């Protein structure tokens, strides 16, 4: 498996009709994964300034971004986080999101002290077993009207 956890520069071509302001951060996640959706709900609750935007990996926009960053589009074993033009995946994406949410969540940066092979091994164990451990929905959840404006198709 290729290591996609290193930051990469995204290209600027987005599907038409999708807006992403530079001051917003984007989380692209597996929309049928109960763990992933729970993470998004937690971020929504903690992100009082509304900086994060969201897209499911199964959406045309999410799939385009996954391809652009060299990620598989037939199995979503990582999420993709874009912050200030830098892409993060695996455990680095979780740490990047938590760091953006301020204290005490910023303390998640201590996970970066773990050697990369150990971080990747831990992340992959959870990612490969997430459906068995946490469950899977039959389809992507439809966001509430209040949250809908923060989702990109």
Task: Give a written overview of the molecule.
It is a single chain. The chain is of the alpha+beta class. It has five helices and four strands. β1, α1 and β2 form a beta-alpha-beta unit. The radius of gyration is 15 Å and the shape is globular. The relative contact order is 0.22.
Quickly name the level 1 CATH class: Alpha Beta
Residue fraction in strands: 5-15%
Instruction: Give the count of helical stretches.
Output: 5
Instruction: Give the neighbour order of strands across the main sheet.
Output: 2-1-3-4
Tally of distinct domains: 1
Note the quaternary state here: single chain
Structural class of the secondary elements?
alpha+beta
Helix content: 25-40%
Write down the overall mean pLDDT: 82
Distance between the termini: 28 Å
Q: How do the SSEs run, as a string of H and E?
A: EHEHEEHHH
Globally, the shape reads globular
Largest sheet: 4 strands, mixed
CATH architecture: 3-Layer(aba) Sandwich
Q: Which spans of ≥5 residues are poorly predicted at pLDDT below 50?
A: 1-18
Strand segment tally: 4
Taking all Cα atoms into account, the compactness measure Rg is: 15 Å
How would the blueprint of this fold be written?
Blueprint: E1 25-29, H1 34-46, E2 52-56, H2 60-68, E3 80-83, E4 86-89, H3 90-100, H4 116-134, H5 145-148
